[in-house]
Amino acid sequence: MAGPVSAAAVILDATNPIEGLADSKKLSERQRDKLAPIIRERALAWAVAYAEVDEIDQLNILQATLLAMRRAVLALNIQPQQVLVDGLYCPQTGIPSQAIVKGDSKVAAISAASILAKTARDALMLQLHEQYPHYGFADHKGYPTAAHLAALREHGVSAVHRRSFRPVRELLLVGCAGKLSNSDY
Prior knowledge:
- The protein has helices at 29-42, 53-59, 61-75, 108-131, 137-140, 146-155, 166-174; strands at 5-11, 45-51, 83-86, 97-100.
- The chain contains seven helices and four strands.
- It folds into two domains: 5-122, 2-Layer Sandwich (Nucleotidyltransferase, domain 5); 129-184, no CATH class.
- The radius of gyration is 17 Å and the shape is globular.
- Helix content is 45%, strand content 12%.
- The strands form two sheets. A two-stranded antiparallel ribbon has the order 1-2.
- By secondary structure, the chain is of the alpha+beta class.
- The model is unreliable at 176-185 (pLDDT under 50).
């Protein structure tokens, strides 16, 4: 419900494999934090990119995610021959692409990208926690937990909340949190 959406692109070095790559959602935070620097060190190329909250609200989360993916692929310092994407849809990059359902558990490069995207976004949410400590971003990373929803009701909607997401939109519509928090000015 808060913060940008992140995506990463990784070109792995087949001669320097990385043990432990897996779907980032199945790894613990500690495992992801251990693997991320190894990926950045051993990959032939990697990039992390974002689509910001206003882009998410304007485009929708799927299109914003595809935009972040496109930005990550185009930011690589080596152009890939093919783009493999986790999911059902591919970003428009001008490079041949293939969507692979559950790709982050099937393809090492997608796993690596998933880990970089998740750790980068988590780090960004920790920075946002410093700006907006009353929302608890350090704990829930912007996801719609009971604590996050309670903080929204108590403190209002911040500049980093996605207004197109139902819980935020509904709070704004009923006027319970229709104000911006003081730290937004």
